[in-house]
């Protein structure tokens, strides 16, 4: 019998993962938590956000962050991330944070390093931008140290 492949975006197939199968899959196969977003304001002016994309079972969260263009370079990014680290540790009970950054995003890399994230790895040529491939850098921080 030949092997048949069906290509689709939304599989209609249902299948059962055994408990043992689940040990080898990402927990995202079982659970996708809604993102948690911290929004920051200076008085009524929105200055930025930190978003948590949480891996519940593993107490890990991917984070993304953004500071409004007109207030960059004034320390808001660092203050926001310091608050987010404290909130993640003391209120969300997370064990670690992960951030993926394009290698050309120097402000973001500097910001992560300034609050204690360490470079843990690189996804080689995983980002296409302006006609060439760039690496994605994986930064991490363990929260109980
Ligand atoms: C990355 C970003 C959040 C930085 O915010 P910010 O408020 O400008 O950063 P801060 O003023 O708090 O600076 C934090 C640190 O980064 C460094 N930094 C900030 N901008 C920099 C730049 N353009 N070049 C070099 N270093 C820079 C600062 O020197 C500071 O380090 P220090 O404390 O050791 O001096 C902001 O540029 C941004 O929103 N960029 C677009 C969105 C983005 O790239 N998000 C990340 C994807 S997840």
UniProtKB/TrEMBL annotation:
Record carries keyword Nuclease: no
Domain N-acetyltransferase: 1-140
Matches recorded under Pfam families: Acetyltransf_1 (PF00583)
Listed PROSITE patterns: GNAT
Top-rank taxon, per record: Bacteria
Statement: the UniProt record of this protein carries the keyword Transferase: yes
InterPro entries referenced in this protein's UniProt entry, alphabetically: Acyl_CoA_acyltransferase, GNAT_dom
MF-aspect GO terms: acyltransferase activity, transferring groups other than amino-acyl groups
SUPFAM superfamilies: Acyl-CoA N-acyltransferases (Nat) (SSF55729)
Name of the protein in question: N-acetyltransferase
Species: Fervidobacterium thailandense
């Amino acid at each position: 019998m030949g092997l048949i492949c069906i290509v689709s975006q939304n599989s209609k197939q249902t299948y059962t993962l055994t408990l043992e199968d689940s040990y080898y899959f990402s927990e995202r196969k079982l659970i996708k938590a809604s993102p948690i977003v911290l929004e920051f304001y200076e008085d009524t002016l929105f200055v930025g956000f930190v978003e948590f994309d949480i891996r519940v079972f593993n107490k890990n969260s991917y984070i993304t962050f953004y500071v409004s263009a007109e207030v960059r370079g004034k320390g808001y990014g660092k203050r926001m991330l310091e608050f987010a680290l404290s909130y993640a540790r003391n209120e969300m009970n997370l064990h670690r944070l992960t951030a993926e950054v394009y290698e050309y995003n120097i402000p973001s890399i500097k910001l992560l390093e300034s609050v204690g994230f360490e470079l843990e790895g690189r996804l080689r040529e995983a980002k296409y931008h302006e006609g060439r491939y760039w690496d994605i850098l994986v930064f991490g921080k363990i929260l109980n140290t």
